[in-house]
Amino acid sequence: MKKIIALSFFFLSSLSTSELKAQDFEFRLINNQYLFSQVMSKVGPSIERDMAQYVDSLDYANSAERRAIESLIREGQEKLKTAEGMNLVSSQTTMNLLLNDYNKFIENLELKKQKKYEQLLAPYIKSLNEAIQSVADQNNIDHVIPTHDENGKQIVLYFSPQEVEKYDMTLQVLEYLNSN
Q: Which DSSP symbol is given to 7?
């Protein structure tokens, strides 16, 4: 019988794992979201502090560019107030281009922030995954079903509350994390 850990699951009393068990699968469950929240309760303040410092440095480094774009937008708005005819069309086009540039600038800053956040989280996610794999190895688990497939689509299995209570291994992983 193959043992499988599911990292993403929902409670649903109308479905059970009996059909899967008939195919020689035995499930164990780990509440990955709960584990992640436990890790974040410990390291979250330090990540938030590091992110705040990064955002401050990013804002400082980009403040001149931001001010220049905002100044051009203000100038364009003033020109729009007095523009007529073809000048109005030209001014509107210029304003649209400036606003697009500003939006791209802001999107770029947000992407940089997201990448930094992911970079700060990476070691903790790695240790969480290593803990899950270690507990799986200790319990002779054949396969760990991830929360998402290779295309980023969520994988969810459904279990009754009784099955979750019976097969949950979340606390074992949490104990492993706390001991290392």
A: S
Task: Please compute the mean of the pLDDT values over residues 93-110 and round it to a whole number.
Answer: 86
| Long-range contacts from 19-26, C-beta under 8 angstroms, 24+ separation | 25/1, 26/1, 26/2
- pLDDT tens-digit map of 12-58: 434 344 444 445 566 677 777 788 888 888 888 898 899 889 888 88
Residues 6+ apart with CB under 8 A from 38: 174, 177
Cβ atoms 166, 27 nearer than 8 A:
no
Q: Which secondary structure element, helix H or strand E, spans residue 66, and what is its range?
A: helix 32-82
Q: Rounded to whole angstroms, how far apart are CA atoms 131 and 125?
A: 10
Compute the mean pLDDT over every residue in the chain, rounded to the nearest whole number: 77
Whether pLDDT at 170 is above 90: no
Closest to 62 (Cα-Cα) out of 94, 107, 96: 107
Percentage above 90 pLDDT, the chain = 7
DSSP letter assigned to residue 14 = T
- Cα 93 versus chain centre, distance: 37
With b for 16 or more beta-carbon neighbours within 10 A and e for fewer, the 139-150 pattern comes to eebeebbbeeee
Report H helices in 83-169: 85-138, 161-167
